[in-house]
Amino acid sequence: TPTMAVKDGNALVINFCDIHYNKMPYMGFSDHYLKDFEQDIYMKLSDILDHASRYPIAKVVFTVGHDFFQYNDSKGKTKHDTPVSHIMEYEDMFESGLRILANCIYMINQKYPMECYYVNANHDSTAAWHATRELSLMFASAPDIAFATDKNHHHYLEWGDVLVEIIHENIKGGRGRSVMAYTAREAWGRTKYHYSIGGHLHGEYTTKERDGTVIFGSRALSDADEWHYLKDYVTNIRGIQAYLFNKYQGHIATFNANL
Q1: How many CB atoms lie within 10 A of CB 113?
Q2: Reduced to 3 states, what is the DSSP secondary structure of residue 84?
Q3: Do residues 242 and 15 lie in contact, with contact meaning Cβ atoms separated by under 8 Å?
Q4: What is the mean pLDDT of residues 138-153?
Q5: Residue 182 and residue 187: Cα distance in Å, rounded?
Q6: For the purposes of burial, counting CB atoms within 10 Å of the CB of 222, is it exposed (0-12), middle (13-18) or buried (19 or more)?
Q7: 189 Cβ contact list (under 8 Å, min separation 6)
Q8: Are 205 and 216 in contact (CB under 8 A)?
């Protein structure tokens, strides 16, 4: 059986979740806050790529959406019509955010072939979908970048004996749960190792293996706004996380880039 040293055996999933670009922080705001935050994004993504470089990697899966933008429309509201704190107006947020996402994709693609998955989330579902579509056009001539832009809540990476679900919310009421044995039953049957990777809670979690699936949740790079601060949601480590999967051995490494 091939081992993880085989170049075509490893896929890296960068769970680029809960960036909340354009959020108004409750503390520490300045005129250069967004410029500094943009540099934090590039720095932490670079850290992930550096950490993972010790392994041979066949491809990278990068998530777009997943609450990258703070809000969803020109009214400054989320998908569920909730008003949220923000700095820039919608058009400026979208234009700047699109540029940042394009730069991130370019950074990754300098080293690896990649697949970009649109992840439907609660803050930015429509804005992020349009951004993903626009990015797919921007990189249409790139031979080794593919985009998944369908609006399903579940995206799947089938990688040898591994099936990975990527979804914004995979834990509710304190319990991890995945239904991919139902939603992706054929791929489930073909594979041996099953994982679900989510976000939304702005903190790292790994639940007990349940119903044949290991549940992961990733940290958020975003800062606390007034809502988070008043509810005392301020103690989690900020950062980006990525997960390495081997075709024959399943999950073999997690990489952290903490701020």
Answers
A1: 15
A2: coil
A3: yes
A4: 92
A5: 10
A6: buried
A7: none
A8: yes
Tokens of 86: 């923000």
Q: Is 55 exposed, middle or buried (0-12, 13-18, 19+ CB in 10 A)?
A: middle
Residues 6+ apart with CB under 8 A from 4: 10, 55, 246, 248, 249, 252
CA–CA separation, 49 and 240 (whole Å): 11
Handedness of CA 164, 169, 171, 172 (dihedral sign): negative
Tokens representing residue 82 in the block: 């909730």
Tell me the residue ranges of DSSP E strands in 30-185. Answer: 59-65, 114-119, 145-148, 155-159, 162-166, 171-172, 175-176
Tell me the helix, strand and coil percentages in the chain, rounded to 5: 30, 30, 45
Give 8's DSSP letter: G
Amino acid letter, 171: I
Residue pLDDT, tens place only, 105-128 = 999 999 999 999 999 888 888 999
CB distance 67 to 20 below 8 Å: yes
By C-alpha distance, which of 122, 103, 106 is closest to 114? 106
Q: How far apart are CA 100 and CA 134, in angstroms?
A: 13
Q: How far apart are CA 214 and CA 196, in angstroms?
A: 6
- The Cα 122–Cα 137 span in angstroms is 25
* One-letter amino acid of 117: Y
pLDDT digits (tens, 9 = 90+) for 18-77: 999 999 877 777 888 899 999 999 999 999 999 999 999 999 999 999 899 998 888 888
